[in-house]
């Protein structure tokens, strides 16, 4: 019973702080056993209100010991594309939603031809690889870069809005991709790290999953709160009745003991 009460209190506290009340869907961290390739994590949010700005995405990655995605070459770009294809395979319920990567530029809005050369990677990478969509970057007030992920959108001049890059305003809300140093042992006690032997192995490379066990507990516990309260009331009533009966029995025994002694004495005297 105390465990049930603890779960109810935990759910109430979490919802009170607005942490896990919304259903947040994100990807697992994906690592490769050869220790030569970085680990990645796709953070996809089905609810638009849960998506984040560039700075929020950057801080989220860095808080886990990583950084927003930097891309060194076309091979790494193709690897990320394969992960996104796996993430968005039919039946997962994944819809349109661009992903922040770590490319951005500092300074006022430039519209000259030099603008594309002003972009830099937030993790300090010196990579010059770029995969801009046609007529991008548009510069101006758009200083942060997303990887297009709009599978249901009609194609534009540069083809489908899938995996090419676009500059956007940094306060816009999007999904994001984190990149981490290679590792063998998972560092997070909540989220499971997926390991694969080959960078080209796309089998379950990215799994749409809940961000930890707490959300699952909440979705199980909250619908059963009325039943749990009813059980608590019934249990309390039963305990009260048992205590009341026990107290009444003790009182009866206490009051009847002197009377029994007097009856025994009177019976002995009459026989004499």
UniProtKB/TrEMBL annotation:
Residues of the signal peptide: 1-21
Bilayer topology term: Single-pass type I membrane protein
Keywords: Lectin, Membrane, Signal, Transmembrane, Transmembrane helix
Keyword Signal: yes
Pfam families assigned to the protein according to its UniProt record, in alphabetical order: Lectin_C
Subcellular location: Membrane
PROSITE patterns linked to this entry: C_TYPE_LECTIN_2 (PS50041)
Domain (C-type lectin): residue spans on this chain: 35-179
Transmembrane segments: 217-240
SUPFAM superfamilies reported for this sequence: C-type lectin-like
Keyword Transmembrane: yes
Domain of life: Eukaryota
Entries under InterPro entries matching the protein: C-type_lectin-like, C-type_lectin-like/link_sf, C-type_lectin_domain, CTDL_fold
The protein's name in its UniProt record: Chondrolectin isoform X2
Species name: Acinonyx jubatus (Cheetah)
Gene name of the record: CHODL
């Amino acid at each position: 019973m105390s465990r049930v009460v603890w779960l109810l209190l935990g759910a109430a506290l979490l919802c009170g702080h607005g942490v896990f009340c919304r259903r947040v869907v994100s990807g697992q961290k994906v690592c490769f056993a050869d220790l030569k390739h970085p680990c990645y994590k796709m953070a996809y949010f089905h609810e638009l209100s849960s998506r984040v700005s560039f700075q929020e995405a950057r801080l989220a990655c860095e808080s886990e010991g990583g950084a927003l995605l930097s891309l060194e070459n076309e091979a790494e770009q193709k690897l990320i594309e394969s992960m996104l294809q796996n993430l968005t395979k039919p039946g997962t319920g994944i819809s349109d939603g661009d992903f922040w990567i770590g490319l951005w530029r500092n300074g006022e809005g430039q519209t000259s031809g030099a603008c594309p050369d002003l972009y830099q990677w937030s993790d300090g990478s010196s990579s010059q690889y770029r995969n801009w969509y046609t007529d991008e970057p548009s510069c101006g007030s758009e200083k942060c870069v997303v990887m297009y992920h709009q599978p249901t959108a009609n194609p534009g001049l540069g083809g489908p809005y899938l995996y090419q890059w676009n500059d956007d305003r940094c306060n816009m809300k999007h999904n994001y991709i984190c990149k981490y140093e290679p590792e063998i042992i998972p560092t997070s006690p909540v989220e499971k790290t997926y390991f694969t032997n080959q960078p080209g192995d796309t089998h379950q490379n990215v799994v749409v999953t809940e961000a930890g066990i707490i959300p699952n507990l909440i979705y199980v516990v909250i619908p059963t709160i009325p039943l749990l309260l009813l059980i608590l009331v019934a249990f309390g009533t039963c305990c009260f009745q048992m205590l009341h009966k026990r107290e009444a029995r003790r009182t009866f025994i206490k009051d009847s003991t002197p009377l029994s002694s007097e009856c025994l004495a009177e019976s002995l005297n009459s026989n004499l």
